[in-house]
Amino acid sequence: MAVFLTANTISAQELKQNQHTKSVDQENNTQPEPEEVAAMDVRPGDVAVSAEGRVFATIHPLGSQKIQLVEIISGKAIPYPDASYQKNNKKASDATFDAMLGLIFDKNNKLWVIDMGLELGKTRLWAFDISTNKVIEKIELQASVAPKGTFAQDVAIDEKNGWAYLADIANPGIIALNLKTKKATRFSGHPSLQAEDKDMIINGKVVLFGGKPARVAIDPITLSADRETLFFGAMNSSSWYKVPAKLFRKQKDNYTIGHSITRVGEKPFSDGALTDADGNHYFTNLQEHAITKLDVNGKLSNIIKNEQKLLWPDNVYLAQDGWLYISTNQLNSTTGFTGKPDDGTPPFYIYRCKL
């Protein structure tokens, strides 16, 4: 693995400040109560909300092979765009979904969904026009950049410049996809992409993955509102990083990109994140059953904490009307994490809170 040093090395003073920027809870009476949007018998993956308030979710591939993408209508999960696109426990094909996970709306209200292709061995990015409920894009990434075994589970879309950024945790890296040419490049080998050698502890137990203490690499990835800064971090990491997005658009080499990465601040161990228009960051806090905010001043605080409801908050999404949506799925109870039969307890929930 290539090793890089960042150009802007964190000073001792910054490090000391970061050490004191620990997660603190807001007063209980100021924390919003998670409100049920859907109770599901299968695990939601990520959730995304359109400009007009339509709610969509992927179904986590660690939980179901029947259905992959749904719209939540009156609290019910309805196959989207229809049942014919779902895998339905059959062999994966080019015409149907395989392993959908990350999804997001761009500023043009186009729905983008990443298909990791865990069975098919192909990473595909789908786009939907929700006004017609039609597939308008299906981009297959070249195997040289996203070979079989790639686990590109989160995506950020730059509709202004025509780019998509995917986070791959299997071979830790950032895949930058030119939406016009359909060509992609991979950035890898940098320490910021890797998991820290620290245990994830939930309810007093060390979380395992593949029979060993979980060490999950780059996971959440977001873009600034002006689409000029890419933010990212590992699931097993207490650091949140940024890098100029133009370096990917200009196809700079790994060395140049690596030396341009800087640390934004602290984060909890998280599976999902969002960056709002003001530059605040929100993380799913796996260990504390919380949603944690890193504000523009570097303060880290739990804005929502609920040990009964936020059981593995997988992702968080801020709708245009100010509602914060959270998918929860007890993912650490799946066979992939425990090595044992799935002992998750449905229903699994999508919640929302008004900030």
Automatic annotation (TrEMBL):
GO terms for cellular component: extracellular region. It is found in: Secreted. InterPro entries: 6-blade_b-propeller_TolB-like (IPR011042), MRJP/yellow-related (IPR017996). It comes from Pedobacter cryoconitis. Its main location: secreted. It comes from the Bacteria. This is Sugar lactone lactonase YvrE. The keyword Secreted applies. Pfam families: MRJP. Keywords: Secreted.
